[in-house]
Amino acid sequence: MAFDIDDVREKLSEIEGQPLWRSLESLVETPTFRAWVQQEFPQGADELQNPLTRRQFLKLAAASLGLAGLTACVGQPPEHILPRVEEAPEEVVPGVPLFFATAHLLGGYAEGLLAESHEGRPTKVEGNPDHPASLGATDAFAQASVLTLYDPDRSQTVTAPARGGRPGPIRTWNDFLRTLEQTLGAQRAKSGAGLRLLTPTVTSPTLAAQLRQVLEMYPEARWHQHEPVNWDNAYAGARLAFGRPVQPVYDFSQADVILSLDADFLSAFPGRLRYTRDFSARRDPSGDPPSMNRLYAVSGTPTLTTAMADHHWPLRPEHVGTFARLVAQRLDVDVPVSGTLPGEIEQAVGAVVRDLQNNGGRSLVLAGMAQPPIVHALAHAANLALGSVGQSVRFVEPVPAGEGATGQTASLRELTEAMQDGDVDVLLILGGNPAYMAPAGVDFAGALADVGFSAHLSLYEDETSVLCDWHLPQTHTLESWGDARAYNGEATIIQPLVEPLYAGRSAHHLLAAVLQSDARASYDIVRAHWQEQSGLQPTQFDRFWRHALRDGLVPETARAPVDVTLSPELAFPPEHEADDALVALFRPDPGVWDGRFSNNAWLQELPRPFTKLTWDNAALVAPALAEEMGLSNGDVVRLRLEGRELSAPVWILPGQADGCLTLHLGYGRQRSGRVGDDVGFDAYRLRPAGAPWQAAGVQVERTGTTHPLASTQNHFAMEGRGLVRVGTLSTFREEPGFAHEGEGDHPSLYPEWEYDGYAWGMSIDLNACIGCNACVVACQAENNIPVVGREGVKDGREMHWIRVDGYFQGTDLDAPRMLHQPVPCMHCEKAPCEPVCPVAATTHSAEGLNEMTYNRCVGTRYCSNNCPYKVRRFNFFDYTQPDAPVQELLFNPDVTVRSRGVMEKCTYCVQRINAARSRAVQEDRAIRDGEIQTACQQACPAAAIVFGDISDPETAVARRRAQPRDYSLLAETGTRPRTTYLAKLMNPNEEIA
Amino acid sequence: MSQIFHPATNAFAKATIFGAIFIIAGLALVWGVFIRSSYVRGMEAREQPVPFSHEHHVSGLGIDCRYCHSSVETSAFAGMPATHTCMTCHSQVWTEAPALSLVRQSWQEGTPIAWNRVYDLPDFVYFNHAVHVSSGFGCDQCHGRVDEMPLTAKAVSLTMEWCLECHRAPERSIRPRSEVFNLAYRPPADQEARGRQLLQEYDVPVEILTDCSLCHR
Question: Is the ipTM, as predicted for this complex, more than 0.85?
Answer without folding.
Answer: yes
